[in-house]
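Blackboard transcription, Thursday session:
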Amino acid sequence: MSKTPAIEINDLTVAYQFKPVLWDIDLIVPEGVMMAIVGPNGAGKSTLIKSILGIVKPLAGSVKILGKQYRNVRLEVGYVPQKGTVDWDFPTTVKDVVLMGTYGKLGWIKRPGKREKALAEEAINKVGLGDLSHRQISRLSGGQQQRVFLARALVQDAAVYFMDEPFQGVDATTEKAIVNILKELRRRNKTVVVVHHDLQTVTDYFDWVTLLNVKKIASGPCGEVFNEENLERTYGVKFTLAIDQ
Amino acid sequence: MEIYQFFIDLFSDYTTRIIGAGTALLGIVSGILGVFATLKKQSLLGDAVAHSALPGIAIAFLITGTKDPLLFFIGAALSGWLATAWILSITKNTRIKNDTALGLVLSVFFGFGLVLLTFIQKLPNANQSGLETFLFGQAATLLFKDVVTMGAVGLMALVLVLIFWKEFKLLTFDRQFAETLGFNTRLLDVLLTTLIVLAIVLGLQTVGVVLMSAMLIAPAVAARQWTDKLGKMVLLAASFGAFSGLAGTAVSSSGSNISTGPTIILFSVLTVAVSFLFAPKRGVVARYFITRSNRRKLKLNKALSEMYDIYRNHENIHHRHATAILKALPGFGSHTLTVLQEKGLVDVDDQKQWCLTEKGINTAKHIQRSGGERS
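(Written on the board underneath:)
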């Protein structure tokens, strides 16, 4: 494993209007880990991802991905936004949305060709939507829509993935599909950062965790930092979680 | 054939041909860009741009003292664009919501435009009359060179949309994702908004500031009813726009002195109404029939399943029952048994005793397994 961390964040501070959303975050994520970001609502989890990706402009601080500025490694980064950020009544099909994952490597003006379409088809099959690739996206269930976004990220063929609450409100089928994709990404030594809400499954799905509440509470291997004390410091209430060690 | 001859006669007139060409072009350009405006949830921006163009037109006249359409076009575009930039920046930088910002900016610009208009009318200048036609438009004033301008701007818009098709689609669908991929979304935004502003300003002379936004929205809304694909939607919107332009021109030119702009708008609203009613899948009529047929199918499935439950309680599954008994079952109407018989699912003998056929039994089993989804 190379010594350069997948993600290195120094002194990151982000504010909307006057209120700080993230305060002085230092974070190092080694290459090849599956990391969950957990924390209460309004803790800045999505904002952390968005400021790493340059969607939100930070007040101060620096972010490096694979040792470089984000704009120099864009093609190595994949993104699964929250499902609610787009209008699913948009006149387009599953395949068309998944193809958008190839737009980054294509660059300006060039259109997707046979190679890109084959990649999209493969990703659609991987998330179990093979029969629905020509379906209009509003005629999908919430879980299927989430899998469309996942497939779109897969065709980006990135080294580092960011997923914003992919497990939010999905059924068991979709949860399983997402977990299978996560496992495959782990096998291929990708780094994956996931905003996650279900504390019970953190240790099942992830090997690394960051506890966040405006400030970074703790970050490291699940076995070292995912404990009741840190959870209490993050959420401000007592936890009696059964954590497998 | 008579209608065909009517159009031949109508458009054999030079002026009508010019107006027809102009309004059709306008319909195409605003149709195409209207698709992106509505999908970006910026339909009302068109209305604001149109109203905000008025002071630009008045100032262009005040500065130059001439009524050159090209100068008006530039003045209108600049002031429309300024209003757009203002609205977008208010929305982005304050807590004021987009619709409120639209209302504010629209009234400020339109009010200022009206003030300037009345001021100009009182000027001791023989040249000033005619500016007020921009309020409701006057297609009759279209000249050949105006149509050439429309064609040039329209062609440019079309070419740009084709070149940046992939980028515009991505920007309208998922702006943040576009940003993470490294596309300059601000540049794309400016480009697309400028094209929308141009399309609107292009129509001011013909349709007027008050009604122009309908030219932008109506074809897109109508087109959305017929298709789930962006490409087809754009083609359809352009066709609906062209149709409205031509039909409006035809009706208003066939005598009776009806003004062209409002007639065009009426036709584009008509395309919306027809699409809402009759489009396959999304149309009101189609949805009514689909729902009705689904309900009937479900009701029939339920009836068959009830019947199967009773027969299953008998040792012989081909046991027969009288009509009266079956009609007492939930979900059985006066025609239920007849319809089931027509489908070959039940059979009746001379004594009016009913039984399930083999096909009926198999279908009922299938229905009970799948929860009544299919028959």
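Lecturer's comment: The two ends of chain B are 47 Å apart (CA to CA).
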